Amino acid sequence: MADLANDIRLAVDSGKAVFGVKESIDSMMASRAKAVIVASSNKRDRINDIMHLAKLSEVKVIVFQGNPMNLGVVCGKPYSVSVLSIMEPGSSNILKENY
User: 35-39 and 83-88: which strand pairing?
Assistant: First the structure.
């Protein structure tokens, strides 16, 4: 998980990402998202909805093993992040690795 956490942080810092369910869904529907990351402790229905939309949009889904507060810390945010969408990976390998 340390490698995933490092890649998430690098993508957030050096690339382009949006935070939140609505923003992530909007980015997938507009074909801007290249990957979506969801915290594993989200409600099962929310995770299933995100995964279904990602499949339709051909977007990579990464399930972060942790809660939204943990994901927020990894992203360097002072709030919880249940879902984030990566539009540009920057200098991270998040799109190349199999998480």
Answer: antiparallel
CA quadruple 7, 12, 13, 16: dihedral, nearest 10: 120
Q: Which residues contact 31 (CB under 8 A, 6 or more apart)?
A: 57
Q: Report the predicted TM-score, pTM, of the whole model to 2 decimal places.
A: 0.92
From first CA to last CA, the distance across the chain in angstroms is 9
Give strand pairing partners of 85. Answer: 18, 36
Residues 58-82 have pLDDT tens digits of 999 999 999 999 999 999 999 999 9
- Fold (topology level) of 2-88: 60s Ribosomal Protein L30; Chain: A; (3.30.1330)
